[in-house]
Design a protein that fits this description.
Elements (H helix, E strand, L loop, with lengths): L1 E6 H12 L4 H8 L3 H9 L6 H11 L3 H7 L3 E6 L9 H12 L4 H20 L1 E3 L1 H15 L12 E9 L2 E9 L3 E7 L7 H4 L7 E7 L8 E9 L5 H10 L12 H18 L1
Parallel strand pairs: 3-4
Antiparallel strand pairs: 1-2, 4-5, 5-6, 6-8, 7-8
Helix pairs in contact: 1-3, 1-6, 2-3, 10-11
Amino acid sequence: MLNQQINALGNKLKLLRKEHGLSTPVLADQLDCSAAFINLLESGKRGASDGTLQKYSNFFGVKINDLKELQSQTVSISYNDSTDDDIPNEVLDYISLILKIKEPHRSIYIEEAKAKLQSIFYSLLTPFDLSEVKKIFTSIKSKWYSLEENDLEVEITTLNGMLQIPEKQLYFKLQISNQSCSLDLLFNDNRNLELFSKWIGEPNVTFVHFDDVPHLNEKQKLKKHTWFSPSIAVRDQLYFLKNSNLINDTTFTPDPQLNMLIKYFLESSAKEVS
């Protein structure tokens, strides 16, 4: 995860140049400055004097007061670096437009925009029906209990989806690996656990936590249900829970050995804190 500071003025100046089809050296020639200086302004590494802003205002026909207002505004964007692509100019332009809105209207607009985005994210969640859920869980179970060595590999994946059931759409998040399978449900939806567990059995561990849900504004209370492959020893199950931060006072397991190890771990952690 990378964090990028976007300077509102620098972004606006860059967009103005690109909209007019100008290269950095050509614009520098028109504004009587160096191309390096233009780059510093656009990257937010250098502030612009009133004189420089006036040159931009005159050349591009924009109001100098609008440029001055953007001078001190920045926005921090976090994004995944799984791709080398830059953030699209359309997104940066949208951010600049938002930053130009006066308070308190800006805050009101942002809240309305967030609600619309949440609605869009909701529509993008993959819909599943019961037959697909059955197929996923029976496949995991058959591979975990297979006696054939070639069948031991389980496709490692994470699924965010909506299960279509008669009375509602049920949000779930499923994380699958060779050693474990974890299912997140909204806390109030846990009465529907049987729709999943009947194909693989009761979970080995449950854990209550708060986390982001794609289509909802605030962090939600979730219950995570975890199943382990029968080839995983109890102590290794504990290590998995520790490394995944799945141990707190809400952690429950029906396995007496694992329960004892979890209890000992919590007691030891409490002593270290005190």
